[in-house]
Design goal:
Shape: globular
CATH topology: TIM Barrel
Radius of gyration: 20 Å
Bound molecules: alpha-D-glucopyranose
CATH class: Alpha Beta
Structural class: alpha/beta
Distance between the termini: 33 Å
Strand content: 5-15%
Largest sheet: 8 strands, parallel, barrel
Low-confidence stretches: 1-28
Mean pLDDT: 92
Oligomer: single chain
């Protein structure tokens, strides 16, 4: 932020502050303000993006939203598997009962003054066969955008969780551009979040091309480095992850520098492109030791905040959970790493 202010001052001092530049400045402020409202968030993971809510052990409860707001979080990211609840042939109608359930979750968040981010999550068909799925992807966004057009502007849309595999940079840039233009017809100023390919990897930011004329875009990335630490014993990444069990993160100079250099790479790109950054997922799986998880989480969180990067921890009450829903209590070490002002009680 400081760098941007200094740069702005230099531009003014040089007398080159044309109408165009002023316009750019105003656009920048919108998206940056929008991003600052996300602030500190948590993902309501393993609920609405499971094949059916409850199948992955999480059903959203009203109480969760009280807990989250009460602990000092300012936003929730709500991953949603729309593709499982919409027709597979045109016009790809979304199931009404499912839509009502997502409405409920969004309203729970908004009524507690939490920013709500709703995305398309685990749309596995599109990363396997993007060309075949493009029309359906856009039809889903048309319906979602029309449905939420009158919701408060503290509801944001995120186009697609972790584009990867056959959804190449070239295709993703095209689909994202079309989705943004389509959403803009019904939601002219709503915050829209977009991330790069390779599972929202920082290294692919340089290949992300966004419409220049949109004032309300936020760029997201996911952060799970070192992967052998954060995904040790994670069955969904393959059997090799068992060999990573016991990997610690103690915060050595090298470990800290690695994280800093990744975040610096991200922020440098963001500054060059005058776009705000949202770290939409980061976390370490519950099979890692708690002391390491707490240290890593606190470090990544604070380094992100130093750079004006908003964030959402992955996730609330499943395998990475900051909250233990079976015991009905916060995992204090993790909560304190995320919201240090929360104290240690
Ligand atoms: C991605 C996946 C999610 C997984 C998380 C951590 O968001 O979509 O299912 O739990 O990353 O690996």
């Amino acid at each position: 932020m400081r760098i941007r202010i200094v740069l702005a001052c230099l531009v003014i001092a040089s007398g080159a502050f044309s109408a165009d530049k002023r316009q750019e400045g105003a656009q920048e402020k919108n998206a940056f303000h929008c991003n600052s409202l996300i602030g500190r968030g948590v993902n309501l993971g393993n609920a609405l993006e499971a094949p059916e809510e409850g199948k992955w052990g999480v059903r959203l409860e009203e109480e969760y939203f009280d807990l989250i707001a009460g602990a000092g979080f300012t936003s929730v990211r709500i991953p949603v598997r729309w593709s499982e609840h919409a027709d597979v042939t045109a016009p790809y109608t979304i199931d009404n009962a499912f839509l009502a359930r997502v409405d409920w979750a969004i309203k729970q968040a908004l009524s507690r003054k939490l920013v709500a981010i709703v995305n398309i999550h685990h749309y596995e068909e599109i990363v396997k066969a993007p060309v075949e799925q493009k029309e359906r992807f856009l039809a889903l966004w048309k319906q979602i955008a029309d449905h939420y057009r009158d919701y408060p502007n503290t509801l944001y849309f995120e186009l697609l969780n972790e584009p990867c595999k056959k959804l190449t940079n070239e295709l993703w840039n095209e689909y994202a551009d079309e989705a943004i233009r389509l959403i803009r017809k019904s939601n002219p100023t709503r915050g829209i979040i977009v991330g790069p390919t390779s599972w929202n990897n920082i290294s692919e930011l340089k290949n992300l091309k966004l419409p220049r004329d949109d004032k309300n875009l936020i760029v997201t990335f996911h952060y799970y480095q070192p992967f052998k630490f954060t995904h040790q014993g994670a069955s969904w990444v393959g059997r090799q992850s068992n060999a990573w069990l016991g990997t610690t993160w103690t915060g050595t100079e090298k470990q800290r520098q690695d994280i800093i250099s990744h975040l610096e790479q991200a922020i440098q790109w963001a500054n060059e492109n005058q776009l705000p950054l949202f770290m939409g997922e980061f976390g370490a799986y519950g099979k890692a030791d708690m002391a390491s998880r707490a240290k890593w989480t606190a470090f990544v969180r604070s380094e992100a905040e130093k750079r004006g990067i908003s964030w959402a921890y992955w996730e609330f009450c499943a395998g990475f959970g900051v909250y233990d829903s079976t015991q009905g209590k916060w995992r204090r070490e993790l909560l304190n790493s995320l919201i240090p002002e929360n104290g240690t009680n």
